[in-house]
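Structure ticket #2291
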Amino acid sequence: MNEEYGLKALRDRRLKISRIHELNDPFEFLGVELSDREFRKALKRTKDQLSDGRGLLCFSKDWRNPVLWSHYADKHRGLCLGFDFRVDLLKRVTYVDSRLPKPKELDEAFVKKLLFTKFAHWSYEAEYRVYVTLDTPIEGIYYKEFSNEFLLRQVIVGTESKITRAQVAAALGSSTDSVEAFKARAAFKSFGIVRQKNELLWG
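Resolution: structure written out below.
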C-alpha cells in the first residue's frame, strides 16, 4: 500500500474491500471463452450481481517481490501489511495460459472458479484471495475490519519509504506489542527485497 492508505489502514484497523468492477485486470471474472453472445451477456449480468453484494481482499504469498512493491506500494515508498488468516478463508489464485472453455451451464462452481482464475502473466503476484460479503459502506467504500481470523502480524516499510518507526508506532497504538514492524531493503546478491537487519538504519 502507499504511505497514506497504509498508515490509515493501521489507524482504522481495517482494509478496503475491492469490488469486482474495481480490480485492475480487464479480464477479471472473464477468463473463459466468450464468443457465444448469450453466454457473454449472462456472464456480464452475473458479474454485475456479484459486484453489488460481494468483494475481494487480495494478498500475495511473498512480500519480497520487488515488482509488487513497485506496482502496489508507490515504487517502494509505501508499506506492506502481513496477516495471519484462518486457512478456510483464503483461496489461491490459479494462473492459466488460455481462457477456460465455455461450460455447459453457468453454475455456482464455475462462477467460483472464475473468481480465482487469472492469466498466467499475473503469476508473479502469487495471489491469494478472500471472498467477502459487502456490509454497510463508509462514504461509499466497503471495509473488512481486522479480527482474530484476520490478524495483523507485520508492518514492512518499503526500501524507499520515509515512514518512520514513530509513525508506525503511532498508527498501531495499543497493537504495537503484538505486531512486528521493520524496514525493508534491496538485497545485495539477488533481485529480491529483504529485511534490513541493522535496526539503527531505520529512524
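Closing remark: Helices lie at 3-12, 37-53, 66-72, 108-115, 165-172.
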